[in-house]
């Protein structure tokens, strides 16, 4: 029998919640996700905690920087075979939401 995940536990518990409790839970989840973008992870153990494409060690700032230098999406997909087109969509969305962060990281890497 497969091991239960935290998500399995939460899904099973949802049926026991009142509508008001579900609304409070939804509000809490929405607060936790502010600024989050699907397909983008930040893990202190991966790339120093910089925003990366999920399942990879490809930092968002690197893709944004390459794009600013003139790389096309097709060129990025060829240069990084693990990338999918949807990963680039997610990276651009993250970069729009976190423009100052991305600019700061690019600047830090340029001066390093």
SSE inventory with pairings:
Layout: H1 6-14, H2 19-32, E1 40-41, E2 52-53, H3 60-68, H4 73-79, H5 85-97, H6 99-111
Antiparallel strand pairs: 1-2
Count of extended strands: 2
Termini, distance in Å? Answer: 50 Å
Number of domains: 2
Q: Mean pLDDT score, rounded?
A: 90
Counted by DSSP, the helix tally is 6
Looking across the biggest beta sheet, what order are the strands in?
1-2
CA radius of gyration: 18 Å
Shape: elongated
CATH topology group of the largest domain: Arc Repressor Mutant, subunit A
Low-confidence stretches: none
CATH superfamily grouping of the largest domain: Winged helix-like DNA-binding domain superfamily/Winged helix DNA-binding domain
CATH class of the largest domain: Mainly Alpha
- What fraction of residues sit in β-strands? under 5%
Question: What does this entry show, briefly?
Answer:
With 112 residues, this protein is mainly α. Helices cover 58% and strands 4% of the residues.
Description:
By secondary structure, the chain is mostly helical. The chain has two domains: 1-34; 40-111, Arc Repressor Mutant, subunit A (Orthogonal Bundle). It contains six helices and two strands; from the N terminus they run H-H-E-E-H-H-H-H. It has helices at 6-14, 19-32, 60-68, 73-79, 85-97, 99-111; strands spanning 40-41, 52-53. Strands 1-2 form a two-stranded antiparallel ribbon. Helix 3 crosses helix 5 (85-97) and helix 3 (60-68) crosses helix 6 (99-111). The longest helix has 14 residues, at 19-32. The model has no long low-confidence stretch (mean pLDDT 90).
């Amino acid at each position: 029998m497969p091991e239960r995940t935290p998500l399995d536990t939460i899904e099973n518990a949802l049926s026991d919640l009142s509508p008001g409790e579900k609304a409070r839970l939804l509000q809490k989840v929405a607060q936790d996700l502010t600024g989050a973008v699907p397909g983008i992870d930040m893990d202190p153990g991966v790339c120093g905690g910089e925003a990366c494409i999920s399942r990879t060690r490809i930092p968002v700032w690197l893709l944004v920087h390459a794009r600013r230098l003139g790389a096309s999406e097709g060129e990025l997909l060829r240069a990084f075979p693990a990338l999918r087109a949807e990963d680039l969509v997610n990276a651009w969305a993250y970069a729009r939401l976190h423009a100052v962060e991305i600019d700061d990281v690019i600047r830090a890497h340029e001066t390093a």
